[in-house]
Amino acid sequence: MADLIQLLTNGLALGSVYALAAIGFVIVYSATGVVNFAAGQFVMLGTFAGVAMLLNAGLPMPVGYAAALIAMALFGALFYLVVYLPLRTSPVVTVIIGTVAIGITLQNAALLTFGSWPFRLPSPFEGMMIEVAGAVVSVHALAVVATTAVMIFLLWLLLHRTAIGIAMRAVAQDVKAARLMGLRVQWLLAFSWILGAVLAGVAGLMLGPMWFADVNMGDPIALKAFAATVIGGFGSLPGAIAGGLFVGLAEVLGASYISSAYKDLIAFGIMILFLLVRPQGIFGEPIQDRG
Amino acid sequence: MALRVLALAAYLAIGLALSVSVSEYTLRLLNLATISAVAVIGLNFAFGYAGLISLGHAAFMGLGAYILAILTTQAGWSPWLATLPAILGTGLAAVVIGVPLLRLKGHYLALATLGLNVSFGIVAANWIELTGGTNGIAKIPGLSLFGHAIEGERPFLWLSLAVVAVLAVLASFIQRSRYGRAMMAVRDDETAASMTGINVTATKVSAFALSAIYAAIAGCLFATHVHFISPDDFNFAHSITFLSMLIVGGEGTIAGAIIGAALLTFLPEWLRVLGESYLAFFGLMMLAILIFMPTGIVGLLSRFRRSAKREAPPAPASSGEGART
Amino acid sequence: MTINRRTILSLAAGTALGAAIRPAFAAGEPISIGAVIPTTGPMSLSGKQYFNTLTMAEEDINKAGGINGRPVKFVIQDAGSSNSTAVSAFMKLIQETKPPFAFLTSYSTQNLATAPEVVKAKIPVMYAGGADAVAESSNGWMFRIRPTDSLAARGMAQFVKTLKATKPGILYIQNDFGQGGAQAAAKLLEANGTAPVGMEAYGQNDKDFSAQILRLRQKGADVILTFVYPADGALLLRQIKALGLKTPIVASSASFLPAALQLLSPADLENVWGVIDTFVDASVGGRMTDFTTRYKAKFGQDGDAYGLAYYDGALLLAEGLKKVGTDPEKLRDFIASQKSWEGIGQTFSFDDKGNGVPGVVVVKAKPGTKTIELVERIRPS
């Protein structure tokens, strides 16, 4: 029983990270329609923004976090200008390949800048553990879960209660109509990229202390985030959370009760199954024109 | 038509000229490029004609390669004989997978096929008794023709050039046949296509199976060329590379598939002179190609050709010779 | 093919420039030595070490007068993380540099894929992939400068006996190294009458090992053998401690690399033994201390046992070049004939399959510190 609780808490912590990574991806997707294959590299950059600010520049934690997130916001704006704007009228596949290409550049640029050794990013809750019903949970993991919940709430407020958020949703639904209504569409799209990058930055900063920072960490995270997005429902924020937690739990419980060698087959198998049986995922968009 | 024959003749002439003049290393890259070309010509059926975004193409190549490798190394089959089950088995697998999967469109299909590719890798890495696990399968015998072993880069290039030529001609016939036109009709508008009596599902599945068969042939070539395969050789990154080759070369065109395969095989090798940062530059260059040549290299070439035609009066009415050569 | 010419020209220019700024310790036509090592991708963690130690070896050899007055030049090509890239890089070297000798990567599948080309090129190579299969396809040209995975597994199985454990559990990374090592260890443990109670795998990119660890605990494992890479090896040790397991751990060499140790706290290393290639002990004095101090000064990191293997390999090669010249066959025979060549990290003794490292060592951190000490040397007969 204690083991089961342990597995559940670890699965939830793992799933929260996937969820956090998936949210940044989903925000960009719902606003711009871009399937960003560099999403994993965004998270990697977030972690390394933390490495640069906290370890290399030696900034104290709150300042370092803020500086890292500002750096990510700038990166999001740059990505909008250099990658999204030139490719915005290209077909889906061209954009996918474009994000893959820039992902290769980002990963290798990080390797050249930070080297190949992994880093250990400090946590505000360094070494703190608590025991729950025989299971040991790190406080940092709980903080990840809490941060994820707070981020969702803030995002919900932003999208439903602020003018900019409502405008963003209008752009996501119909760019032409939004433009006719006098919305500054390009600014809103740029803001979506910035928001996506900052969210990836949060994910990166949260997972750095749990997993170490390593320049090759991007693609595996992206794969899990994709699975989470599909299972939860493409374009849905609650879906990204549900999907992320689901993938995290499937990974840990699958390894425990089925087979550790084949556990990733479970996550991807369920993803394919969802696509076949319920392509809109748990909460997702009704699939019509985004096909 | 004349242009097609000319292009094929030019392709073979360039290939043969290169095969007797360049170094062993360049020959190897040419072999990799031609093997990729086979796979990418196949991918062109699924994506270029039928509009199916597949990010699982490397898994079909791997399936073909593994069937051949297992039959030759464990059951002692001759490699030629083993290509039959490899190709047919892979085609069959594509049909079985395609029937449920191809109802998906766009990036949904892309992610589903990506998931398939990842799953293939997991099974290949863990079914150790059959696949040798992550250690892969070594000592795969090479092909031989009329008692001559096709060993070494140069003879192999002759074989692979011939294979590409035959498969390209075949693809060109299919493209202009009823089936090819049906695929493109389905890509452009499914509803309209089904109203004209086209069986949409059957068309998609056959395009998918055809692409898998080409991938399997590429897999057989790959296995008999390097004599060693492991799950890493067929991971999802290779699927993305194949799709990139097609886009960079010019989607919907056979020439584009061949040119794209060659360019993306050689580009990173050429960039090695840049030292440590060569892959970072590779990514940037690919992005630049996508931005500045949205219709790929072939699209750019045919644009030149068309504007040249416009300048030369009187322009003869070219029939159907558009971007899709 | 202008690019090819340009490549050669720029290489030539690079050589000329290098020769011009190099102090005149060694003059004359340089001898080019090839190296195909991973400088990009996930394998670059170790690859960077090889890059550094080979650069250092090049300088050291040339400072000491080169090869009978001729300088050596290491031409390094990236092997990336795919088999195909490694083979292409090797062929590029053979074609453009025509080296009498080359170093290959430490990734077994890349070694296996490159093996047929080595035979064609007819030059001796040193490699560091651990899979036994590489030596099985032994063609006389390939020399292994690190212990085989099965030797490391034998060392681990033997140390399980020393620990008097009877219910070993195995945890391994799902790649050629982990699978091979785990299978070899399982067979040996079974032969010792202590068959493993459980074998658990994890993916190369996994970040949570709680399921695997808890399964081994449920099965009552009284020692856990781990076959790991550096970053995941460190993460695994931290999670084992976080879950409160007191079970002794016998870890494969990557856990004790500096790249992994810098991620760990002393507490993570309690009750952990490492079965490693060689003990890179900066305090031992002599050539070892010289190597470690200079490495640290030059690259700002600690040198590791894997990098040292390539450094030793380069010195062995230099001796061969001095004694028998650049003829590949003579060079091959020279290396093959070494039965007790004293390197800094190893005493190399090549068997008929080209395996050059006959033993492993067991190390442990001193209680409450991250200072590593030698426990015993294992040289299975």
UniProtKB/TrEMBL annotation, chain A:
Topology within the bilayer: Multi-pass membrane protein
Keyword list, A-Z: Amino-acid transport, Cell membrane, Membrane, Transmembrane, Transmembrane helix, Transport
Compartment(s): Cell membrane
Chief localisation class: membrane
Gene Ontology CC terms, in alphabetical order: plasma membrane
Membrane spanning stretches: 12-35, 42-59, 65-85, 92-117, 137-159, 187-213, 225-253, 265-283
Superkingdom, taxonomy of origin: Bacteria
GO biological process: amino acid transport
A GO molecular function held by the record: transmembrane transporter activity
InterPro entries: ABC_transp_permease, BCAA_transport_permease
Family: Belongs to the binding-protein-dependent transport system permease family. LivHM subfamily.
PANTHER family per record: ABC TRANSPORTER PERMEASE PROTEIN, BRANCHED-CHAIN AMINO ACID TRANSPORT SYSTEM PERMEASE PROTEIN LIVH
Name the UniProt record assigns to this protein: Amino acid/amide ABC transporter membrane protein 1 (HAAT family)
Originating species: Enterovirga rhinocerotis
TrEMBL record, chain B:
Highest taxon, organism lineage: Bacteria
InterPro entries: ABC_transp_permease, LivM-like
Transmembrane segments: 83-102, 109-128, 156-174, 205-228, 240-266, 278-301
Location of this chain's protein in the cell: Cell membrane
Cleavable signal peptide: none
GO cellular component: plasma membrane
Keyword field: Cell membrane, Membrane, Transmembrane, Transmembrane helix
Topological type in the membrane: Multi-pass membrane protein
Main subcellular location: membrane
GO molecular function, one term: branched-chain amino acid transmembrane transporter activity
Protein name, as recorded: Amino acid/amide ABC transporter membrane protein 2 (HAAT family)
From TrEMBL, chain C:
Positions of the Leucine-binding protein domain: 30-366
Keyword Magnesium: no
Pfam families in alphabetical order: Peripla_BP_6
One GO term (biological process): amino acid transport
Source superkingdom: Bacteria
Signal sequence extent: 1-26
Keyword match Transport: yes
InterPro entries noted in UniProt: BCAA_transport (IPR051010), Leu-bd (IPR028081), Peripla_BP_I (IPR028082), TAT_signal (IPR006311)
Assigned keywords, A-Z: Amino-acid transport, Signal, Transport
Family according to the record: Belongs to the leucine-binding protein family.
Protein name stated in the entry: Amino acid/amide ABC transporter substrate-binding protein (HAAT family)
